[in-house]
Design brief:
Elements (H helix, E strand, L loop, with lengths): L3 H11 L15 E6 L12 H6 L7 E6 L28 H5 L6 H24 L7 H20 L2 H21 L1
Antiparallel strand pairs: 1-2
Helix pairs in contact: 4-5, 4-6, 5-6
């Protein structure tokens, strides 16, 4: 009967919560590195930790204040793999393959999928309520922000949970397109 924080900490220590993408979320006033040698497009950036751990010797780069976004280290669609730090080197296979690894119990897979579906469904309801003239903007915005914060937390737990979220979002999209 562990609490969730202890459980996730234990999983991280065991190496079960691998993450190929850093995803550090910047706050206003944070600094980030832009490396013209490694970036795939000009919106890409690395957090200080990933940049300093990577090999950018002889590259054209600059440190700058950033207003928001997230670290692209480990994302091959944003960054050349030669610019990844040692913490976010791509693992073989895709994020979605992490979902099916035997590291995670069937119960954890099913429970995670169900919780994510419920949370996404509630977020969908909130967004739908915004179209109604009688909704309470302040109350729904607070709830929507709490859900988005929780989804960011889930993504930060590693590729397994990020893959579960991707799978759930894909299911929602398929359901929405088939009903229209």
């Amino acid at each position: 009967d562990e609490n969730p924080e202890e459980y996730f900490k234990k999983m991280q220590e065991e190496g079960s919560l691998k993450s190929t993408i850093c995803g550090y979320v910047w706050k206003a006033g944070d600094t980030a590195y832009k490396c013209k040698t490694c970036e795939i497009d000009s919106s890409c950036a690395l957090c200080v930790r990933c940049f300093q751990a990577g090999n950018h010797e002889g590259h054209e780069y600059q440190l700058q204040k950033i207003g928001g976004g997230f670290c692209d280290c480990g994302d091959p669609s944003s960054w050349k793999s030669s610019g990844f730090c040692p913490y976010h080197k791509p693992i073989s296979g895709s994020i979605l393959e992490e979902v099916n690894k035997p590291t995670f119990s069937t119960y954890l897979r099913k429970a995670t999928k169900q919780v994510i579906r419920v949370v996404l469904s509630r977020l969908q309801d909130i967004l739908f309520l915004h179209q109604s003239p009688s909704f309470d903007l302040q109350e729904t915005d607070v709830e929507a922000l709490a859900i988005i914060s929780w989804l960011e937390f889930i993504c930060g737990l590693g590729d397994f949970f990020r893959g579960m979220l991707i799978t759930s979002l894909s299911s929602l999209e398929k359901a929405a397109t088939s009903s229209s």
